[in-house]
């Protein structure tokens, strides 16, 4: 969701936003196409398995449906929130678990693009409201159709829907609005989730279901709460932690240092941080795990990648400056 107003303030982007409009145009089938893919069947098992961001993916003739092209730095992102605002309406948080934020296709150089296919715009509150976040971008019209949750019904995916309502939770808004946001802002920018990739027998919204399941696959392999607990770091409203506690534990478990995001007051505005030059924020709220992927993102053959050294965190770096807060009473299932 990054730079959203609905969720955690202070989530900054790793790099600059690039307009989606530089891509080659459509494929003539009425769906936007990032790379002008053919309407062939894209039988990827017959294609070489290329590692995203490697030179081979930039060679001519690569089937962009079978290798993640351009957006090959894949980020599996999660939230730690202590409440949802809507807990009294039953929108709660899962016990002993971070929640799913999304799966994002950053460019190999760390910048990214967003809202790449306005034919698949299901976000009721586009954020930003143009494709590049600037007045010069293409406006992203608010979606007014049936909720993206209804797209799962023809596929009979009620188990998926129930899971998503438990682990993919919005803050101060319906969960499905958040899913629509994540799909349209980010999933439409993966080459492997492009509509032509589903071949001639594409079923409407198959790409949406596929994206949800893929984002969940990555999430389930990254049990942040459990990993931190195994490293001795659990939510506490009395003990503060150090950034390197989180980085060290998660690097040990994942194999590469993730980005750690914080919200809340800046350290130098807190009592403990008076006079300090540390302006990092003090409440743990996000983690982004980076990877490259072999073949289709959907297959989950990912290789961990270190966070960019120029954008590792928004958190305070002073020892014992960070709160990993316990959830509010009544905020959990
Ligand atoms: C990063 O890569 C993208 C896609 O290749 C390109 O459009 C963009 O200009 C690059 N950005 C920088 C800062 O090099
Ligand atoms: C986007 O939002 C800004 C700030 O609210 C507003 O000034 C601008 O008109 C909006 N642009 C579009 C295309 O809706
Ligand atoms: C592609 O798939 C369609 C059915 O979805 C089939 O009719 C067609 O023969 C296939 N083409 C090739 C080259 O396999
Ligand atoms: C915190 O640091 C920022 C940046 O140096 C500064 O603008 C701000 O005034 C500081 N706040 C306090 C309360 O010291
Ligand atoms: C812990 O502190 C946070 C931040 O003040 C608060 O939102 C939450 O309700 C607290 N949890 C408990 C169990 O006291």
TrEMBL record:
<comment type="similarity">
    <text>Belongs to the RNase T2 family.</text>
</comment>
<feature type="active site">
    <location>
        <position position="186"/>
    </location>
</feature>
<keyword id="KW-0540">Nuclease</keyword>
<dbReference type="InterPro" id="IPR033130">
    <property type="entry name" value="RNase_T2_His_AS_2"/>
</dbReference>
<dbReference type="InterPro" id="IPR036430">
    <property type="entry name" value="RNase_T2-like_sf"/>
</dbReference>
<dbReference type="GO" id="GO:0003723">
    <property type="term" value="F:RNA binding"/>
</dbReference>
<keyword id="KW-0255">Endonuclease</keyword>
<keyword id="KW-0378">Hydrolase</keyword>
<feature type="active site">
    <location>
        <position position="182"/>
    </location>
</feature>
<feature type="active site">
    <location>
        <position position="101"/>
    </location>
</feature>
<feature type="signal peptide">
    <location>
        <begin position="1"/>
        <end position="19"/>
    </location>
</feature>
<protein>
    <recommendedName>
        <fullName>ribonuclease T2</fullName>
        <ecNumber>4.6.1.19</ecNumber>
    </recommendedName>
</protein>
<dbReference type="InterPro" id="IPR018188">
    <property type="entry name" value="RNase_T2_His_AS_1"/>
</dbReference>
<dbReference type="Pfam" id="PF00445">
    <property type="entry name" value="Ribonuclease_T2"/>
</dbReference>
<dbReference type="GO" id="GO:0033897">
    <property type="term" value="F:ribonuclease T2 activity"/>
</dbReference>
<dbReference type="InterPro" id="IPR033697">
    <property type="entry name" value="Ribonuclease_T2_eukaryotic"/>
</dbReference>
<dbReference type="GO" id="GO:0005576">
    <property type="term" value="C:extracellular region"/>
</dbReference>
<dbReference type="InterPro" id="IPR001568">
    <property type="entry name" value="RNase_T2-like"/>
</dbReference>
<keyword id="KW-1015">Disulfide bond</keyword>
<dbReference type="GO" id="GO:0006401">
    <property type="term" value="P:RNA catabolic process"/>
</dbReference>
<keyword id="KW-0732">Signal</keyword>
């Amino acid at each position: 969701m990054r730079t959203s107003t609905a969720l955690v303030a202070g989530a900054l982007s790793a790099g600059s936003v690039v307009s989606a409009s530089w891509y080659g145009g459509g494929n003539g089938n009425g769906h936007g196409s990032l790379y002008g893919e053919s309407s062939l069947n894209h039988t990827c098992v017959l294609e070489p398995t290329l590692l995203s961001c490697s030179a081979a993916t930039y060679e001519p003739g690569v089937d962009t449906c079978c290798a993640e092209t351009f957006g090959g730095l894949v980020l599996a992102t999660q939230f730690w929130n202590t409440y949802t605002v809507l807990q009294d309406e039953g929108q709660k948080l899962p016990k002993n678990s971070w929640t799913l934020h999304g799966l994002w296709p950053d460019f190999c150089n760390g910048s990214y693009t967003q809202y790449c296919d306005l034919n698949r715009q299901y976000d009721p509150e586009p954020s930003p409201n143009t494709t590049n976040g600037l007045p010069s971008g293409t406006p992203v019209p608010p979606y007014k159709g049936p909720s993206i949750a209804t797209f799962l019904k023809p596929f009979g995916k009620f188990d998926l829907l129930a899971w998503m309502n438990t682990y993919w939770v919005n803050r101060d808004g319906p969960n499905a609005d958040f899913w629509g946001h994540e799909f349209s802002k980010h999933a439409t920018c993966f080459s492997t989730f492009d509509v032509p990739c589903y071949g001639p027998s594409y079923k409407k919204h198959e790409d949406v279901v596929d994206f949800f399941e893929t984002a969940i696959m990555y999430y389930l392999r990254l049990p942040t709460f459990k990993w931190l607990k195994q490293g001795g770091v659990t939510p506490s409203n009395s003990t503060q932690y150090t950034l390197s506690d989180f980085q060290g534990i998660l690097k040990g478990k994942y194999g590469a240092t993730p980005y750690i995001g914080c919200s809340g007051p800046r350290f130098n505005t807190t009592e403990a941080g008076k006079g300090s030059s540390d302006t990092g924020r003090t409440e743990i709220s996000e983690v982004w795990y980076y990877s490259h992927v072999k073949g289709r993102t959907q297959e989950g053959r990912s290789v961990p990648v270190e966070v960019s050294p120029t954008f590792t965190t928004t958190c305070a770096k002073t020892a014992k400056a960070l709160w990993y807060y316990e959830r509010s009473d009544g905020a959990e299932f």
